[in-house]
Amino acid sequence: MSNVNGEINIFEYWNVVWRYRKMIAAIVATVSIIAVVVSLMMTKLYKAEAVIMPVSSSGGGGGLSAITSQLGGLASLAGLNISGGASDSDKLATILKSRTLAENVIEQENLMPVLYRDSWDKKKDAWKDDSLTPNMEDAVRKMKGIVTVSEDKKTKVISLSVLTDAPELSAHIANAYLAELQNFINDNALTTAKRNRLFIEGQLEENKKDLLEAGKEINAFYNAKGVSNVESDVDVSVGMTESPDASLDRKPRFAARDMQDDPALRNLLAEKIKVEEELAKAKTVRDVPQQVYLAYLMLRRELLAKVNAILTTQYEMAKIEESKEDLAFQVIDQAVVPIKRTSPKRAKICMISFFTALFAAIFIAFFVEYMKKVKTMSHKN
User: Fold this and answer.
1) CA 96 to chain centre
2) pLDDT tens profile 256-297
């Protein structure tokens, strides 16, 4: 459709469009009507969105590392790398995408009848067909199809969106995910600092008991006897009902490795254990002078008091370290019930369908015109 000089003649193109205007209009109208009908028949979907942000700590995310290490294969299932270099937001996103969290939400919120409403009989409050009862694996797969977790790498903000055909359900599931995320963190967080604190707390408790018992022994001795430097009528029982390190055995063994290195505390504990081991070799020492026995009681109480002071300091330091590794996230936006549907976007569907049909109809018109010219030229030849 060009003249002898090879220039394109726009009027010839327009003439082709005009000659086939009825065909073009018919195609466009048909496709547009179909698009309108299809968009009206499509299920309305509503999206609720919750936004959270990890609370940074100077601990470098050690707590979340402890949690994600307990997830095992869930990281690979979610398709994320949660190696040591992963950020807190990456690890939180991994937990949100995990199968464990999806199962917890389904079980806690009793979502099986909701996810498979066509198979659920509301009147009987039971499945219509017991042989077709859905399993948890299928439910988790379906849940992951309606839940989307996205992360902004720059701001570290995590968005959790839920898309269902019921606005209330979308908001309910999104908020349930946040609640179960917090529960999961609370139930599984066992950081190094927390292990230190638990160990020291147990040691401090045992030492306080020993310190109080030592005070009771001194008081009982004063009340029972007049203290003398020469009388040797005290028989001292030094037998032990348990091994010197039995109190340690009652505590988690792994905590001892993680306790902060304090030479003074270690020396005092070693001295205490050594003395008790030596005394344990004999069940009773007879004819101990009263003043000597009293000095022994006072020395033992002083030793326990020093251990108590150091343990108290260690305990406060452990609590500070634990607070640095607290696992927490801040909810920026709680999920609210959406008012407007998210899809289908009927106007967009109709516009795209209209212009697609228009260009397709014009192309068909030019193709038909071209075929007519080819056929005409073949007849002339």
Assistant:
1) 5
2) 444 445 676 677 777 777 766 665 554 565 666 667 777 777
| E-state strands within the chain | 46-54, 120-121, 126-127, 147-151, 158-164, 234-237, 284-288, 329-333
CB 109 within 8 A of CB 172: yes
Distance CA 318, CA 312 (A): 10
Q: What is the pLDDT of residues 32-68, one digit of tens each?
A: 999 999 988 888 999 999 999 988 654 444 444 444 4
**How many CB atoms within 10 Å of residue 324?**
14
Whether residue 54 is preceded by a cis peptide bond, meaning omega within 30 degrees of 0, is no
- Length, in residues, of the chain: 381
For 89-127, what is each residue's pLDDT tens digit?
888 888 899 999 999 999 999 999 988 888 888 888 888
Residues 6+ apart with CB under 8 A from 332: 51, 52, 53, 157
pTM of the model: 0.54
Sequence-distant (6+) residues with CB within 8 A of 11 are: none
The contacts of residue 183 (CB under 8 Å, 6+ apart) are 104
Task: Give the pLDDT band of residue 146 (cuts 50, 70, 90).
Answer: very high
Residue type, 90: D
Beta bridge pairs of residue 121: 126
Cβ neighbours for 94, distance < 8 A, ≥ 6 positions apart: 68, 71, 74, 75, 78, 80, 82, 86
Distances in Å between the Cα of 291 and the Cα atoms of 199, 210, 229, 240, 309 are 37, 21, 5, 23, 27
Percent of the residues in the chain that have a pLDDT greater than 70, as a whole number: 68
Q: What angle do CA 266, 271, 275 make, to 5 degrees?
A: 150
The DSSP H or E segment spanning 298 is helix 290-324
Could you list the beta-strand ranges (E) of 255-368. Answer: 284-288, 329-333
CA neighbor of 102 nearest in space, from 70, 76, 139: 139
